[in-house]
Design a protein that fits this description.
Strand order of the largest sheet: 4-3-2-1-6-7-8-9-5
Number of strands: 19
Shape: elongated
Structural class: alpha+beta
Length: 329
């Protein structure tokens, strides 16, 4: 091989190395781009979230003393896990390749500044950290999304239902559930206490129908509220007092038109519940919860008491006879 051919071979090798470097560098850049996180701010910095839809409905979530609340909805607690799940989803979702970079594309996918399906504003106190526009859905569990102040729109793995703009959808539905096991139950015409795992009537004669009592306690333990309203003047159709984990809780049930409500003394609001839960509790009276002592059982009890009294008299008589005998001796 002459020197010229050697020179060509070396030149070709250098070109191959350079081309390979450029290719792999582009591949790395592409990988970085496709793996870009949708959330560009630190999740721990966010303490306020505002979600607004195209109709102007909005909900505000504020983190106060480590707990997410609904400041515009009676300052009630939000569903903590639901808020955290939303933030975790935003943090782990990748943007991928843009599907639109023009104004017409942003309008078509409804992620424009003034034409969006939902707008999510993430803030720290009153300072906006990031704004996301959520638009149309190109497929199952997919949304078109755009970051504010950017031209690119993306198709990402998100569900619009995870970003509701109604306050009641963020409300902690377990708010009125008693914390801990119920150990005392008092209704309009009955009262029970739980001793050694068994329900006993507090005052009434008879036996507790445990299965029916458990229907009340289980319903109350798992009851979910559907919304909140300011209390109005309504006479309670049914009242219930329970003790659980050392707390005494007073519940009031009432109906208004076709809606069913539950309130509790420690909240200034009335909470909407479903009719099924309402009926399971308010349909119970002492007649269903207390089983009268049958005549046979009563006779057995009386006989037992008489026998016990007779034995006591017999023992007393024997003792007196023994005493008399000892005296005569």
């Amino acid at each position: 091989m002459n020197r010229f051919n050697q020179f060509l071979a070396v030149t070709l090798s250098v070109q191959i190395v350079i081309a390979g470097g450029i290719y792999f560098d582009n591949q790395a850049s592409t990988a970085d781009q496709t793996q870009m996180a949708l959330l560009s701010t630190e999740k721990s910095q966010i303490n306020q979230i505002t979600i607004e839809d195209s109709d102007g409905k909005q909900t505000v979530l504020s983190k106060i003393e480590g707990k997410w609340l609904l400041p515009d909805y009676h300052q009630l607690p939000a569903n903590q896990s639901k808020v955290l799940d939303m933030l975790n989803t935003l943090e782990t979702t990748k943007s991928g390749w843009p599907v639109a970079t023009t104004e017409s594309g942003r309008e078509r996918f409804e992620v424009a500044d003034k034409n969006f399906q939902k707008r999510v504003v993430l803030s720290q106190d009153d300072e906006k950290l990031q704004t996301l526009y959520l638009g149309t859905s190109p497929g199952f569990r997919q949304l078109h999304v755009r970051r504010a102040n950017e031209e690119e729109a993306y198709a990402v793995k998100l569900n619009s239902h995870d970003f509701p703009s109604e306050n009641n959808n963020w409300l902690d539905q377990t708010l009125l559930q008693p914390k801990g096991d119920i150990t005392s139950l008092e209704g309009p015409d009955y009262a029970f206490i739980k001793q050694a795992g068994q329900w006993q009537p507090s005052a009434e004669e008879g036996k507790a129908v445990s299965d029916e009592i458990e229907k009340i306690t289980n319903t109350l333990t798992h009851i979910n509220i559907q919304g909140a309203e300011e209390k109005t003047e309504h006479e309670a159709a049914y009242q219930l007092t329970v003790k659980a984990a050392g707390d005494t809780l007073n519940y009031h049930f009432f109906k208004d038109d076709e809606n069913y409500y539950l309130s509790r003394d420690d909240y200034a609001q009335a909470f909407k519940i479903n009719q099924s839960d309402y009926d399971k509790i308010t349909g119970q009276t002492a007649m269903q919860l207390i089983k009268p002592v049958e005549a046979e059982e009563l006779s057995t009890i009386v006989d037992s008491e008489n026998n016990e009294a007779g034995n006591q008299n017999l023992n007393k008589s024997s003792s007196e006879q023994e005493t008399t005998k000892n005296k005569n001796s």
